[in-house]
Fold:
Amino acid sequence: MVLSLKQAFLKEGFAEEIKSTLNLSDSSPDDPLKDPVRIEGTLKNSAGTVLLTLSADTVLRSVCARCLEEISLPFSGEFSHVIVENLSSEKNDADFIIAENDELDLCELVRSDLLLTIPPRFYCKEDCKGLCSICGKNLNTDSCDCKQEEFGSGKKLSNLSELLNK
Ligand SMILES: [Zn+2]
Ligand SMILES: [Zn+2]
Structure:
């Protein structure tokens, strides 16, 4: 979705509501943004720049980093950006977004906003037990009889004390 900001830049006092549903998926299997993203916001002319504020709402799709179960996580975020037609020297600031030819690709912007905000890992629940490192069973729903390696086992110590007692 490409917005034309020509009017927004021209008219002092310009204000416009934005309401849309964007499809932001990049079609890769591990993309968390598979679901449509609902956005609502405003474009406002503010002293020659355009102020964009919006909220984005979606359901993230991912897998639990411990047990690999698929999970869906409702997510919403608020974003705002100052958009300029070009960067003059006194506005040389990374916080500005330049609208080339007075156009703004809203999909690209919202996608990068979301990817910067969402957590890098997801868990199905806080105390997810994960998978057994030996048989691979999901320990949240299954149990197994695998003996987990014990480190610093007491056995050697008791052998030692037996020896010492002799
Ligand atoms: Zn899990
Ligand atoms: Zn096991």
